[in-house]
Amino acid sequence: MRVPVSFGQYVPVASAVHTLDAKTKMGLVASFTAGIFLVDGFPGMGVMGLVVVLAVALSRVPPRIAVRGVRALSFILTFTLLAHALRWNPATVALVRLGPLAIDGPGLAEGLFFAVRIVLLVVGTSLLTLTTTPVQLTDGLERVMRPLEIVRFPAGEVAMMLTIALRFIPTTAQEAEKIIIAQTARGARFDEGGPIRRARAFVPVLVPLFVNLFRRAEELALAMESRCYRGGAGRTRLNVSAMTVTDWSVLAIGTLVLVGIGLAL
Questions:
Q1: pTM for the whole thing?
Q2: Which residues of the chain have pLDDT under 50?
Q3: Does residue 25 contact residue 249 with C-beta atoms inside 8 Å?
């Protein structure tokens, strides 16, 4: 059985985004995050949405994979929308009223604005892991944090831990999906009953899931020890990454555009 690519997993396709250096993409993600938090209106959010669509198109990552992480945030999106839209005895004209609770137009618009911001932030930042291999990501993180080694910060070890954590996110999703499919084939039902019953139905999934994760962690630790991994000090690399003129140009132009959109709109 073929398991689909999970959220955050590297997608090996040939694209202009894949060829960029990891540090360039990290800088663009930081600029995009700053820009999207500077935007304070729907026009600016619409422009940021076009930027995300353009980035996904340039990366050649299938859109269904790029937006897969949004499904996991359905509860957060719903909570964000209701937290801003619901009013207690509103003085304004309510769109929907249920006793003392009501939803008015300004609150609904504000909730939609923050929900759209979360969606764009998730899709835009996920392109970093979707277009960067774990090795490139580790190298980029280590080089970005290297100046902190002056104060004896273990940049190499921290970069490796962050990369392994990111890599285990899609692995965990794949393991959970396999277990759910296997137990569904044996008659288990995960879509019946109320919230408590559904939560209890997932208990048999968690036990084998954690067992498999601990087994993978132990295998990874043994593999690293057998290859004499001793942290970042004195390590060499088969492929040494370096930012080219194209990387610096894309980073400079992208930062100016993204932050400029946030300040202007």
A1: 0.68
A2: 1-5, 7
A3: no
3-state SS, one letter per residue, for the chain: CCCCCCCCCCCCCCCHHHHCCHHHHHHHHHHHHHHHHHCCCHHHHHHHHHHHHHHHHHHCCCHHHHCHHHHCCHHHHHHHHHHHHEEECCCCCEEEEECCEEEEHHHHHHHHHHHHHHHHHHHHHHHHHHCCCHHHHHHHHHHHHHHHHHHCCCHHHHHHHHHHHHHHHHHHHHHHHHHHHHHHHCCCCCCCCCHHHHHHHCHHHHHHHHHHHHHHHHHHHHHHHHCCCCCCCCCCCCCCCCCCHHHHHHHHHHHHHHHHHHHHC
CB 190 within 8 A of CB 201: yes
Residue 234 pLDDT: 61
Domains of the chain: which residue ranges?
16-237+248-264
**What is the reported pLDDT for 192?**
66
Structure tokens at 255: 């930062």
pLDDT per residue as tens digits for the range 14-48: 888 888 888 888 888 888 888 888 888 888 888 88
